[in-house]
Amino acid sequence: xxxxxxxxxxxxxxxxxxxxxxxxxxxxxxxxxxxxxxxxxxxxxxxxxxxxxxxxxxxxxxxxxxxxxxxxxxxxxxxxxx
Amino acid sequence: xxxxxxxxxxxxxxxxxxxxxxxxxxxxxxxxxxxxxxxxxxxxxxxxxxxxxxxxxxxxxxxxxxxxxxxxxxxxxxxxxxxxxxxxxxxxxxxxxxxxxxxxxxxxxxxxxxxxxxxxxxxxxxxxxxxxxxxxxxxxxxxxxxxxxxxxxxxxxxxxxxxxxxxxxxxxxxxxxxxxxxxxxxxxxxxxxxxxxxxxxxxxxxxxxxxxxxxxxxxxxxxxxxxxxxx
Lengths: 82, 231
Fold this sequence. Notes:
With 82 residues, chain A is α+β, with helices and mostly antiparallel strands. Chain A has helices at 17-28, 53-67, and strands at residues 3-10, 41-46, 73-81. In chain B, helix 2 (66-76) links the parallel strand 3 (43-46) and strand 4.
């Protein structure tokens, strides 16, 4: 199925409490080699036809305006799987 | 005075907000998220809860609801709008107030009676208070950490747009201890704590006078009745 994949991450300089909690749990389980964990989102937009350049442009705008909040997050990638 | 209270799927505190409006002397009007008609209300409350399951981001999907299109337009024309907790999150996601709200720095849901300082009384929702007044109302949130970039924070502080600040204890890591904001015009106010849960003796926060006697939240709803009368 053709899809556009939008990945959103909390801004790099922002505290990510969920990532911090997972990092703490990993350390408790002996994974001291992992220095940090950050948790973002992968959002798939599905199509029943091939994805066009216009779709990618639209998805990029949707990613910036709705799927992410620029105050707290960055869209780190918009990719296509046809 | 007709005060609209919006219900989104997942809203929890709409009935409490309606009760608060009634106890303050107003007439609560239930507004539905899918209805663009504001039913000629004089002001709107966006209550707390977990609209749309907090999916995507708290308040993000509610900000796209049909009723918000009407509210954003009416707020631009001066309609008083109060966003409480999830309602505050809806206001920032609607860009009616700047910044964002992220998960509490303590990594847990926090529920407590919270002291606040009233930082601005020139708004539709705070004119019953005195500047610098200390009030206590319940706070209950998981994602109440207020953040904004340095430039926005400077503007908020410089222009007196901070409406409420946490006193003694910052429960969620909010920048500059910000608990609530107002817009430039003063008709839109948003805050994380819950004034609608401190409006009736016997059901509010404890005070030095008696258990559960705190009614500091009533001032919000009396304020808007003043502002509507004076408008």
